[in-house]
Amino acid sequence: MAITFRKCLTATSLIVFVLLSILQEGCAPKNSSGWDPEKGLQGTLSISGAFALYPLVVLWSEQFKEVHPHVRFNISAGGAGKGIADALTGMVDIGLVSRDIHQQEFERGGYVIHVARDAVVATVSDQNPNLGFLLRQGIKQDEFRRLFVDGTAAAWNQINPSFSDDDLHVYVRSDAAGAAETWAAYLGHSQEDLKGIGIFGDPGMAEAIQKNPHAIGFNNINYVYNIKTGKQFPGIRVVPIDLNGDGTLAPDENFYDNLDSLTNAVATGKYPSPPSRNLSFLVKGKPKDTVLIEFIKFVLTHESQSLLLENGYIPLNEEQLLEERTKLN
């Protein structure tokens, strides 16, 4: 049955989704599921994890329920680390993951299916006194490393002499987050190596950045760009990466003005990986449950993937879709 997707995320719906997820204290394990001759597919799927993937999974679940009205979903956000832990302990059917899986997580039975791609970007307030310099010059990878890993700079001009002598505040994530792990991987480290003021969640990070003109942090792109307009939200700006390290932002390095331009840069490899990344489902062991398998198959259809670009994600290409579908055989 073909479905035409018309729903997309807005700033309001994104906030509502996240607030609802925070209000949920946990996810109950699913009920028995399967196929009923009269009702069709029925059962419950419990899902938790990455803030980056949560809003998209909510949309997918709504569309799935239009076809299978007797399937229920319990979905909550709480960070990739929580999603992985919940899935591996059997608390949920699917953990939402926005980072690479560690070897010990595979050894505990983690089975990964990629469902989309997105990216993490550095962010500052649009009132940052160095915004003009940042947008013209960007920041080099080694300068980001000095900011987030060395943690020794107390003023902006200690990173770059062109910058002001204003105080510098570095924000990192306080929760086990895919965004933090991915950003740290770009710098050649792990989340535990990041130094700064801990902020919980992507919404919290974006709000903290907007309120502090002297701060720098990082966010998933959907917490920086307005889906409806494609422009960056008021109060927050992406910090460009000076990819070739020459101290200026060349035209082929400057793709941050709108969401379409950035997602195209991610899809074509112009924006580096990391901090672009896979977004994935993690389940414990190869899926066997009927409802679980059918939902994953649904997510890997062209119709479901058509939701991605209009909502600030990058769909899997045909080769990637085939590879992920094969994991269900």
Structure notes:
This protein has 329 residues and is an alpha/beta fold. The protein contains 13 helices and ten strands. Strands 1, 2, 3, 4, 5, 6, 7, 8, 9 and 10 form a ten-stranded mixed beta sheet that branches. The model is unreliable at 1-6 and 15-31 (pLDDT under 50).
Question: What brief labels describe this structure?
Answer:
329 residues; alpha/beta; ten-stranded mixed beta sheet; elongated
Mean pLDDT score, rounded?
91
Major sheet: size, sense and barrel closure? 10 strands, mixed
How many individual β-strands?
10
- Count every helix, treating DSSP H or I runs of 4 or more residues as helices: 13
Q: Helix share of residues?
A: 25-40%
Distance between the termini: 21 Å
Rg on CA atoms, Å: 20 Å
Series of secondary-structure elements, N-terminal to C-terminal: HEEHEHEHEHHEHEHEEHEHHHH
Q: Roughly what fraction of the amino acids lie in strands?
A: 15-25%
Structural class assignment:
alpha/beta
